[in-house]
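Job type: complex structure
Entries:
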Amino acid sequence: MLVSDLLEYPRAERAAHTALIDAEGPLDYRRLGTAVDRAVGWLRGQGIAPGDRVVYAGGNDRAFLALFWATLRAGAVFVPVHPELTDQQIDHIVADSGAALAVCRPAAGRRAARSTDVESAWEQVLATAEDPYRAEVDEDAVAMLIYTSGTTGRPKGVVCPHRQMLAAVDAVHACLGYRADDVVLCRLPLSFDYGLYQALMTALVGGTLVLARRSDDMGLLKLVERTGVTVVPLVPSLAQILTLLQGRAHRPTKVRLFTNTGARPGRAVTAQLLELFPGSAFASMYGMTECKRISILDPAEYAAHPDSVGTPIPGDRIRILAPDGTELGPRCTGEIAVRGATVMAGYWNVPMAEQNRFVPHPDGGLELRTGDNGWLDEEGRLYFVGRDDDVIKRRGVRIALTEVEDAAERIPGISAAVALRPEPEGGPLLLAVYGSVPADRARTLLAAELDHSRMPDRVVPIATVPLTANGKPDRAAARRLVEAAEAATETAEPTALRSSHEPVAV
Amino acid sequence: MNQSQFDQLVERTCSVRVTDSETPLVDLGVDSLHTVALLMAIEEEFGFEVDPDALADPALASPAGLLRYVHANTASPAGI
């Protein structure tokens, strides 16, 4: 079975049911299926063959999903890219994936064999004849590459085979039980796995997916009410947006389930959310792109175990490892390691010896060393503690501090840069730079290299580069220098008055 | 309210520094949550309902654009 076969059930059995609602309006499964058939024809017309990589940098709409389903059905590899990434960032992904086709801005797609912008690709798709072709490829064939930040270097593509993706869909479904009458709000970008899997989970049951974008935020609650949303996948900022809006409007909604992964909203926000949306439940989850989902807390257990991210999903096993690699017992904090059906097939184009996170396990298969710290209780519930490396979550995106530093150090005149882990989490991201480039100029040049998630809030010049004994940037010492420099300019800071709408840090 | 006062409202609500009133909010580093908080603060301050689609228009998505939008939607545009 291929991931794209998930769409066959609702096409056959629920053709008249609304598959998705986007800015253009509703689209039923019959018409979505037709669009996918046209997209398959268009892709093959572009010379796309099984195994070819197709980079796609579009927003949350029907075009994205039609091209996604079609790419997989054609046996090709879908490489989703957030459209707000800079041209340089997309160009890296195009080149690293060896894209046969890049559907993105022309300046970003130059290194692909073919390139076209999103709008004209979609126009051409709609003008192409339907093509019923379905590639005969193995379940272990690659369905997607999802680029994500690691601890070192530039983003790497996580190799996602059909088999693992289907295992993840089945396992998550077994825990959350999306229903045929569910209406799932997808405000998360489809270019993130958490967003894209909403489309897979919804297709599995033949439900309805509501595709929202950032510009819909102010009207989000009205959208929830108008389209009858029942399931809302969250990130902390989205939880707070809904709390702000509903705290004022108190609209009746049909929301029955909130899910959350990655960083969690504060307990107070979650409590407020559950109170503001009567009849809703909260499923706290944990995972990372390298194995999609790892654990899910049964919503019924939330009240008793609000800090847990749940038990492993069916098919996965969690071990907690000491620094020397030995397995730790209950209530001991160590690195979270995962193996099982959803562990992906490593990083694209990276030799096994350099995979770092993916370690061959004696029992066969790969074990994922998450780099996250946590502990298990006696019943096997997982508690996430944090990370001790240089990876942070910012605006819902996993970013490596080294990515920010590398980008700064590519600017002529900057000889060293040190990015400081925001404290508290969600606080401003500060970048200390050493060199001959004024801070304002460095900021302007960085903006061409980095997307909003990776862009520092402030660039602070420092007069010396502190190094640790083994020659790595000493972040603690750099922090002291930056704090000294910031204190010197403190008087220029705007007075921080609290208004009733000022949210706590995300 | 003049532009400088409005920029202060943006700075207070969004925890950013407004270097240039014509710079789009996203480029000032305002995230989605703070954008909603800002629009709600505007509704409270100026007493009218912001069109949910207002920010879809790039011309309005900066502090200067938003203030023009506020003036167009309030009875006494010169009010302080």
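Summary: The radius of gyration of chain B is 11 Å. The helical segments of chain B are 3-14, 32-46, 63-73.
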